[in-house]
Design a protein that fits this description.
The complex is a heterodimer of chains A (about 110) and B (about 110). In chain A, strands 2-10-9-4-5-6 form a six-stranded mixed sheet, with no helix packed on it. Chain A has a four-stranded antiparallel sheet with strand order 1-3-8-7, with no helix packed on it. In chain A, a hairpin with an 8-residue loop joins strand 9 and strand 10. Chain A has no helices and ten strands. Chain A has about 110 residues and is mainly beta. Chain B has no helices and eleven strands. In chain B, the strands form two sheets. In chain B, strands 2, 4, 5, 9, 10 and 11 form a six-stranded mixed sheet that branches. In chain B, strands 1-3-8-7-6 form a five-stranded antiparallel sheet, with no helix packed on it. Chain B is globular and about 40 Å long. Chain B starts with a strand and ends with a strand. In chain B, a hairpin with a 2-residue loop joins strand 6 and strand 7. Chain B is mostly beta strands. Classes of the chains: A mainly beta (about 110), B mainly beta (about 110). At the A-B interface, strand 4, strand 5 and strand 9 of A face strand 5, strand 9 and strand 10 of B.
């Protein structure tokens, strides 16, 4: 199984700012996934990121709010833009076979 | 077609008892069914997963039972321990797991001593 790391592990941000979350995998993977887990809720897929192509966003999520980069087969970033308190969540990246990174706990004040 | 329905929402079990959590799906294209365990403040950890070519998979005290015709699968935790107290999520995916996961709503399990 792949080893997945995320940075930062947590952050507290002010309303209206943006945060970029990094996801690093120890092996090359074709597809990377970004999920959001709101407090007390289940996980919801934000988008699928393939290297060399535009990310595919799920219904309810847009590129302007959650821009994603996938510069190579081991790395991806998710930016949460123009944040509001409703964006307070755990953000998780995942690769194939169902393994997740440790998550980024974001609190927006 | 994309939903995965999980029940119960919460479960209380005595130490040593059996915890059973159920999930049902609609999309027959799903071919990978993992279960996740999540402790407060942590990300979900893959616990056990099954593919539809088998009806049961066991790893230690954790067993998945899979009923393809009923489109249901369940997690059984034998000899439940207080340390098993966590939230459990079922999920489903296509392409053997190398695709996006659709999650159930979660079950909050409390194992009382």
């Amino acid at each position: 199984s792949a080893v997945i790391s995320q940075k930062p592990s947590r952050d507290i941000c002010q309303r209206g700012t943006s945060l970029t979350i990094q996801c690093q995998v120890d092996s090359q993977v074709t597809m990377m996934f970004w999920y959001r887990q709101q407090p007390g809720q289940s996980l919801t897929l934000i988008a699928t990121a393939n290297q060399g192509s535009e990310a595919t966003y799920e219904s309810g999520f847009v590129i302007d709010k959650f821009p994603i980069s996938r510069p190579n087969l081991t790395f991806s970033t998710l930016t949460v833009s123009n944040m509001s308190p409703e964006d307070s969540s755990i953000y998780l990246c995942s690769v194939g076979d169902g393994f997740f990174g440790p998550g980024t706990r974001l609190t927006v004040l | 077609q994309q939903q995965v329905k999980q029940s119960p929402q919460s479960l209380i079990v005595q130490k040593g008892g059996i915890s059973i959590i159920n999930c049902a799906y609609e999309n027959t294209a799903f071919d990978y069914f993992p279960w996740y365990q999540q402790f407060p403040g942590k990300g979900p950890a893959l616990l056990i997963a099954i593919r539809p070519d088998v009806s049961e998979k066991k790893e230690g005290r954790f067993t998945i039972s899979f009923n393809k015709s009923a489109k249901q699968f369940s997690l059984h935790i034998m000899d439940s321990q207080p340390g098993d107290s966590a939230t459990y999520f079922c999920a489903a995916s296509k392409a053997g797991g190398y695709n996006k996961l659709i999650f159930g709503a979660g079950t909050r399990l409390a194992v009382h001593p």
